[in-house]
Amino acid sequence: MTPARTAAVRIATGSGNLLRQFAAWLMPGTVTDTLKRATGALVLGWFLAGILYAAPALMWAAAGVWILSAAAAGTPPAAEEKPAPVLVRTPDTAVDYDRAQLLTVLDEITRGRSGIHLVHLWPQMRRARPAYAGLSDTELRALLAEHGVPITRSMTVDRVAGRSGVKRADVERLLTPPPPLSAPLSDRKSTADLHDSRSLSPRPEVGEGVNESWTDAW
To answer: What is the mean pLDDT of the chain?
Structure first.
């Protein structure tokens, strides 16, 4: 959207907001107050119209004031930056918030299916564990991220596509323990090293023992 179009939309939106505010002020709820305010508005309008008629140059100033007021009223409020949710762990919820319990819940929910969309995952997680019942969608998402559970942006589950969710394959991968670490190469001797060490050890000559015994006999 071009800057000129953005400004025009903002002024139009602000003009509507100002008119709605004026209507809300004009009709406070009782007939008597509405008649009083309507009469005062008509008198003030007639007075301002007389001034503008007597001095047409002031019309441009009035138009400028209206445009500035409408632009200010049509400016959307700045989005407040919300801090990242922090999961408060208590003795009652610390176990339910750990990785093992989370993966157990996800395993129970996704078993026998290709995955689950987040829109269905959140309520099932709240029913599965009492500690999750009071968590918002944002806090549940933060719990998944904290324990390394990936969220697929667009996946198909039960012929429904285009929604974010958690795949069963990712849950199974997280449930599978990593293979044990092998011993360092420095602590192991290869077969070739053992063979070389055997080849270097001294061997007795064939018949050496027989010759010595024969000499001693003589």
So the answer is: 77
